[in-house]
Design a protein that fits this description.
Blueprint lengths: L1 H40 L1 H10 L3 H7 L7 H14 L8 H29 L4
Helix pairs in contact: 2-5, 3-5, 4-5
């Protein structure tokens, strides 16, 4: 009986160990991909994320947008801001997250327009 119990415990430890190792590898790969994306996005985008305290992806998720479309950003911002107003039973915390997300997306739109201006600027 003790022999079978020891075998069951050993198999359980092996299964958990493999699952932990697999999760660790996946987390490492995700971390590497995120680092690559941050590096590829440019220093201005990284600085804007650092200053605002919110990443571009998080801001897009908060305002439920997939592309940086100023009209869609404004529409979703106004809706979420109204819905989360404390006077209608909303949450000030969520409302502040909505404001920060809009600020972050506005920063990104400004950065993109600066990039486009510098790319289309004729060399003198």
């Amino acid at each position: 009986m003790a022999k079978y119990l020891a075998q069951i415990i050993l198999v359980g430890v092996q299964v958990v160990g493999r699952a932990f190792a697999r999760a660790l590898r996946q987390e490492f790969a995700a971390s590497q991909a995120a680092a690559g994306a941050r590096q590829h996005s440019g220093p201005q985008t990284a600085a804007a994320s650092s200053i605002s305290g919110i990443s571009l992806q998080e801001a897009q998720q908060i305002l439920n947008i997939s592309k940086l479309n100023p009209e869609e950003i404004q529409k979703n911002y106004e809706h979420l801001f109204k819905v989360n107003d404390k006077s209608v039973g909303g949450s000030f915390y969520l409302q502040s997250k909505v404001v920060r997300a809009k600020e972050r997306l506005d920063d990104e739109l400004r950065i993109q327009s600066q990039r486009e201006d510098s790319e289309h600027k004729p060399d003198t």
